[in-house]
User: What shape does this take?
Amino acid sequence: MNHYFSRITVRSPAPDVRRLAQNACTDAYREHQALWRLFEEDAGADRDFLFRREQREGRPAFYLVSSRAPVRDQGIWHIEHKPYRPRLRTGQRLAFSLRANPVVTRTDSNGRRQRHDVVMNRKHAPDYRDLPERERPPLAQLVQEAGIHWLETRAERCGFAFEETAVRVDGYVRHRLPARGKGKPIQLSTLDFTGVLEVTDPEAFTATLVQGIGPAKAFGCGLLLVRPLA
Assistant: This one.
């Protein structure tokens, strides 16, 4: 299957265009819908793209990996896209960036399986919760340790490996997304990973690049951005 890598930026600094772009991106639902409208209408197509939002000079910008090329700029967006055909080899070292929604699944007292973000899960573990407050490690340490552990559990099947000291985890943010219809608000947390990895299985890693890592992909999580080391 063909894939495309795209960069989407605001078409013009004009106030009316900037306002339209900002209005389209007030929450993760609107962002996903705005990006979906960039593709040609196809009733049989799945919303099977990955994206990552960035902020450029106060304006939203996006990176996308998709099976179709986005082409409809809506009069708002400047679209740059190219075929995405990563050429990988075993042992290749790459710089990477990832925004993910790392979670663990626990069963509650009623037997229901529930997802918890890895940082809060760590804070509720007995070896942390039972410590006197002054002896508890700082949040930054919990974020680093919990994030590294989560990524380690996925690395092998995703086709890569990394050294703990070569990866930084930060940017812990808890999001509350507005309810749609009669549903409940969605709560999720994100972590940002940056560092260096090594490709161990080029085929599996290629699949990871186009399929993403972890849940909440519809909310801008899971896209692994990579570049060769100089």
